[in-house]
Amino acid sequence: MWMASRSWGAVLVGPCTWLMFLALGRFGVSVWGDFVEPPPSLSLLSMAEGLTRLPCLFRVQEGQVVQVSWTRERPDGGKEQVITAHHTEGHTEFGRFSGRVRFESSDPMANAALIIGSTEVSDEGTYTCHISTFPSGNFERWLSLTVWTMPISSLEPVEMVEGQSFRVAAICRSVGRPPPRLSWDTELVGQSQNRSSEGGAMSTHFSLHPLRSMNGQPLDCLVWHPSLDKPRRIANRLVVHFPPDTAVRGYDENWVVGLEGASLRCESGGNPKPQSFTWSRRGGALPEGVRMEGGALWFDRPLAAADGGVYECVARNSVGVGKAEAEVMVADSPRREASFSGLVTILGAAAGALVVVMVISMVIVSLYHKRRNRKLERELSKTTEEICTMSRQASFRRVNSVNTDPRIQVDDDVPLRLESPMRTSLSSLSAGPPGKRDSHSTLSMGRGERPASHNSTRRGERGRDREMDTYVSNSIIALDSGSHAPLAPSSLPPSVWGPLPHPRS
Q1: pTM to 2 decimal places
Q2: Is the peptide bond before 272 cis (omega within 30 degrees of 0)?
């Protein structure tokens, strides 16, 4: 659609205008006795109170245009003159169009386009451009004009009171051509109802059950119209009135005789805000020396013991009443009580801190002992393994230390428990220092020879066995340490060895 003179009002041209431009491009501007514009069928769209242009351009190759005129067809089918121009007598405006219309060009014979200033809705209709030529005759062209109006909108909020039944909270109205569309933009829970009436008037109602929590919530109306680039928003906030909710503040339960500057405050909400406050004391009048200022009760003197009691505050607004009370006690020496209370609080805090420290210490000690036990277990395991290893090494050495000399044999009847220690002892004796060896230092036992100790009684054998075990243990320790202490023959009792055999000749 084509738009002209946007600042004065839009003139919108329908799709037929593009057909006209195509025709002009195909057939040229000069046509034998025919219209250059408008095309055969043209629908125009204009906004009320704006400027409207109705095109009319005619060209002749022979003769001339002698008169042009515009007429409008009324809804009842009749016609009314709008304006006329004669090539010699000038132009004339008719009826309600007088002073509102004019030709676009100063030479209407060359360009007969009509301009309507401050277009009205009543200007809507079918217009005819009539061209009189000489000698070709008369020619006409029709145009259809539609006039739109910008929507005129309003919103009427309704003041609500908490506790009322389900009712209308706001009404949004709008009128325009074509009729606008209305909607609500809100998070409130409610219902909307749209209504329409003649003349393009639309309205919508939003209803809900009022609660004090809804007070001040947005309830906006949106107006949608084809003449608007985006919906027009009418901002609004819901108003819900509710009684005051009152509370008494200022008493800290530590009022003492002689305290100065004491006061009680009556804090109250509500919508609208309370404008009236009343103070009273249960069971009697207010004490002397107090004053009421706004919602506060001031003690202009030091407190006395008789100032105690139950104080009540009453707040009022246009909706209802809110009440609140507080029991005031004025003690003789609450400061000591306060000190004792503070001491108890400090002691309690200290005890709590001590408990926390003890718990933390126990946890730390437990972790330390666990860690130490794990370390000891590792060390014990390592030591056990080392002992096992040393024991195996000692066993290998004892086996390897057995005398392999075939000339020296031990009778098979000697117990195996004594064989290795005895041989080890003999090796130790043979390895003694030079100069200490004599005929008793070399021992040899022939096969079949038995020591005299086997002839002793069984009790003596058990005693010798215990002595031998002690000696073997000492020998093992000496072998494991890598050093052998000198062993004299007298280090073992004679009863163990028995009489030594003489060396063979």
Answers
A1: 0.54
A2: yes
